């Protein structure tokens, strides 16, 4: 006897005799096939009516044994296997079979076990051997949520996880209760967003939301708030909306100053963004008149602002429309969207981008950095600043291809991301100026000394002469590598950062204020003790003239200075030429490139001074010095590495062991880091110099000759 084989779910009635029938399926070619099977225990159930769960889905092993009637002392077949696969047997053997084969490799979900099923519920493609056709029945699992049948256990687990991520956590059987909402509501900066389960794992959800990027979102908001003071209204774009949290914060706090557009290419993310807009009482601007009734909020509720939600590819929407502010935050690198971003961005607008491909930027996957950014890098002590300069170099090249230059306003590299905010300067002259700041870096692998190559295109006989160190002469082989191309200009705009700090005070973003204070000190290359947010009116006006650009003025912006003029006034060519010479005076005050890690250059057997005290020592020696956000133990200074080590040794105390009797320690071997650094601590020259330890009263003699022993006069 045969029975129709259906791909739908069947009932668990086992004692029903099914007569032979034939199922005719009509295909596009008009061919008809008949599939005959025998000894089937599955009944076809209409999809319109509620159905019971499959017999392979049980809560306990005892429920599965009840289907086989193990209490009776006679041979019983397996309820989940056909007779040709597993013949009828007695209770003890059938119990081991159900436990070891079906129950042991089941998939658990909300108290139910989806056991593996060998019944002819799922047909496998028939194998033709000679004149005979074999249609093998494959083992599979029945999904408790939908009517799908999955062959592999790992695929079944992934199938269930996808249901959970989409919020489909209730089964479609008659025993299932009413579905409940699985969305979780999170609140950040007075904006509420609904997220799916596993919202922090991008591989498992469509609407990705990372709470660790809160600092990143606040920095971008402050940059947009500063731009809103220059001109209103601002058309801003969040090209990768995900949950829409960033665009919601823009529209909720800046109100009528911004026209927010949130874009995403995923349909589920777009639906989630619209729901979050209604949750925050935002009116979604419809794209067509037909959507007007669906996209407005309920009557009686006051809408705070309006947001336009689009479903496009990020490159497409940036090619079609012009914006004043664009933020790019894709999953990974953002180099694929830079050309489209600079194509239609308005003059003096801002482009911000967040790169999360830190494995390549931080020199863990150097081949990926070469493929994405066309840059050769190695792991260095200043790898985070190196990553920021790599991204800025890619941004500058993309802007130059569109005849636009850039002014770097902000560059931040933390554990999870690299954030770069630049201002767009339209014209071939700013584009040429930005392109000239892309240079190669010579890096010594012995002492970590580094220097940018000169602007000349002539080939030098000995490139090692550009390095301040002498490692190539004292060490065998090649000691330096060429890294780049990199951005060699400034990473911060002091005036823009100060205004961002004022915006954090205005909107109560206290978590961002310490970082911005560090960035301002780093941009000015000063310590935090000299930092002050309160400035006089004249100084504030002068500070504004360096970056404030109203829409009605004709300005030429080079470095971080812009010309202010009143409405309706024009500057003569001579005045513009004179004003463009002002940034040359400030170029000398730019912060030094890169930084030194105090632990990397510490001396073995010596206790280093505290970092803040060491900064004061460098400052007393006449060097510019500041801390850096890239490294908590990093020191940004214009002092050469040799002088850096000299001052570090001068104010370090020797470390002694308990069994050490003598009070003199020779430290010259520890001072050799790539090159022989002469420890000239005092102005007097001699065979050795004595450092007195005030606490222990023990002296340490630093000799210049390693081979000569310490002998008495």
TrEMBL record:
Short name of one Pfam family: TRM
Regions annotated as coiled coil: none
Catalysed reactions listed for this entry: guanosine(27) in tRNA(Tyr) + 2 S-adenosyl-L-methionine = N(2)-dimethylguanosine(27) in tRNA(Tyr) + 2 S-adenosyl-L-homocysteine + 2 H(+)
Domain C2H2-type: 143-163
Example of a GO biological process term: tRNA N2-guanine methylation
Taxonomy, superkingdom: Eukaryota
UniProt keyword Ion transport, yes or no: no
Annotated SUPFAM superfamilies: S-adenosyl-L-methionine-dependent methyltransferases
GO cellular component: nucleolus
Biased composition (Basic and acidic residues): 23-39
GO MF, any single term: tRNA binding
Keywords, comma-separated and alphabetical: Isopeptide bond, Metal-binding, Methyltransferase, Nucleus, Phosphoprotein, RNA-binding, S-adenosyl-L-methionine, Transferase, tRNA processing, tRNA-binding, Ubl conjugation, Zinc, Zinc-finger
Region described as Disordered: spans on this chain: 1-52
Subcellular location: Nucleus, Nucleolus
InterPro entries given in the database record: SAM-dependent_MTases_sf (IPR029063), Trm1 (IPR002905), tRNA_met_Trm1_C (IPR042296), Znf_C2H2_type (IPR013087)
PANTHER family from the UniProt entry: N 2 ,N 2 -DIMETHYLGUANOSINE TRNA METHYLTRANSFERASE, TRMT1-LIKE PROTEIN
Assigned protein family: Belongs to the class I-like SAM-binding methyltransferase superfamily. Trm1 family.
Entry protein name: tRNA (guanine(27)-N(2))-dimethyltransferase
Origin species: Nothocercus nigrocapillus
Gene name per UniProt: Trmt1l
């Amino acid at each position: 006897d045969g029975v129709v084989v259906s791909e739908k779910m069947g009932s668990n009635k086992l004692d029903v005799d099914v007569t032979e029938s034939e199922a005719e399926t009509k295909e596009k070619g008009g061919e008809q096939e008949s599939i005959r099977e025998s000894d089937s225990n599955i009944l076809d159930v209409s999809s319109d009516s509620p159905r019971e769960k499959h017999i392979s889905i049980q809560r306990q092993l005892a429920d599965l044994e009840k289907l086989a009637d193990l209490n009776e002392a006679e041979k019983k077949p397996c309820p989940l296997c056909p007779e040709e696969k597993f013949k009828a047997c007695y209770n003890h053997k059938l119990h081991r079979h159900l436990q070891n084969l079906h129950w042991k490799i089941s998939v658990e979900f909300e108290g139910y076990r989806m056991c593996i099923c060998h019944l002819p519920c799922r047909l496998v493609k028939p194998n033709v051997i000679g004149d005979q056709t074999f249609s093998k029945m494959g083992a599979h699992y029945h999904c408790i949520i939908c009517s799908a049948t999955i062959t592999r256990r790992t695929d079944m687990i992934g199938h269930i996880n996808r249901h959970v991520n989409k919020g489909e956590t209730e089964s479609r059987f008659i025993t299932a209760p009413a579905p409940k909402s699985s969305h979780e509501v999170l609140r950040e900066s007075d904006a509420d967003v609904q997220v799916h389960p596993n919202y922090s794992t991008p591989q498992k959800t469509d609407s990705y939301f990372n709470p660790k990027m809160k600092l990143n979102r606040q920095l971008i908001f402050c940059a947009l708030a500063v731009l809103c003071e220059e001109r209103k209204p601002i058309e801003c774009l969040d090209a990768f909306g995900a949950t829409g949290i960033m665009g919601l914060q823009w529209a909720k706090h800046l109100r009528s100053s911004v026209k927010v557009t949130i874009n995403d290419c995923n349909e589920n993310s777009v639906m989630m963004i619209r729901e979050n807009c209604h949750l925050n009482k935002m009116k979604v601007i419809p794209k067509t008149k037909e959507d007007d009734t669906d996209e407005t909020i309920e009557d009686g509720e006051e809408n705070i602002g309006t947001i336009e939600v689009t479903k496009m590819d990020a490159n497409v929407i940036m090619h079609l429309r012009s914006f004043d502010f664009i933020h790019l935050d894709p999953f990974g690198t953002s180099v694929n969207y830079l050309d489209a971003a600079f194509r239609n961005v308005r003059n003096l607008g801002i482009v911000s981008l967040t790169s999360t491909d830190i494995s390549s930027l931080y020199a863990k996957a150097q081949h990926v950095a070469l493929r994405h950014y066309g840059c050769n890098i190695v792991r260095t002590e200043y790898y985070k600043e190196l990553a920021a300069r790599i991204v800025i170099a890619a941004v500058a090249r993309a802007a130059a291809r569109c005849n636009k230059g850039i002014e770097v306003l902000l560059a931040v590299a933390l554990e999870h991301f690299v954030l770069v905010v630049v201002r767009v300067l339209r014209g071939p002259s700013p584009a040429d100026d930005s392109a000239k700041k892309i240079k190669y870096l010579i890096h010594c692998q012995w002492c970590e000394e580094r220097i940018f190559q000169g602007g000349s295109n002539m080939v030098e006989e000995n490139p090692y002469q550009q390095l301040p160190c002498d490692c190539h002469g004292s060490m065998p082989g090649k000691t330096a590598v060429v890294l780049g191309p990199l951005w060699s200009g400034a990473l911060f705009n002091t005036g823009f950062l100060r205004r961002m700090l004022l915006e954090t005070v205005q909107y109560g973003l206290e978590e961002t204020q310490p970082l911005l204070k560090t960035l301002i000190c780093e941009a000015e290359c000063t310590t935090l003790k000299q930092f002050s947010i309160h400035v006089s009116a004249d100084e504030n006006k002068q500070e504004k003239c360096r970056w404030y650009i109203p829409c009605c003025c004709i300005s030429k912006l080079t470095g971080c200075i812009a010309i202010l003029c009143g409405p309706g006034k024009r500057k003569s060519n001579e005045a513009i030429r004179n004003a463009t010479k002002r940034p040359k005076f400030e170029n000398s005050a730019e912060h030094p490139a890169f930084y030194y890690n105090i632990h990397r250059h510490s001396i073995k057997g010596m206790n280093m001074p505290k970092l803040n005290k060491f900064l004061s020592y460098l400052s007393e020696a006449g060097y510019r010095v500041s801390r850096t956000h890239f490294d908590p133990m990093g020191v940004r200074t214009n002092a050469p590495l040799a002088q850096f080590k000299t001052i570090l040794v001068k104010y370090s105390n020797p470390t002694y062991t308990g069994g050490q009797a003598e009070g003199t320690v020779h430290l010259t071997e520890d001072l050799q880091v790539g090159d022989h650094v002469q420890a000239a601590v005092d102005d007097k020259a001699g065979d050795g110099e004595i450092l007195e330890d005030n606490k222990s009263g023990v002296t340490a003699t630093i000799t210049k000759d390693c081979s000569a022993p310490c002998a008495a006069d």
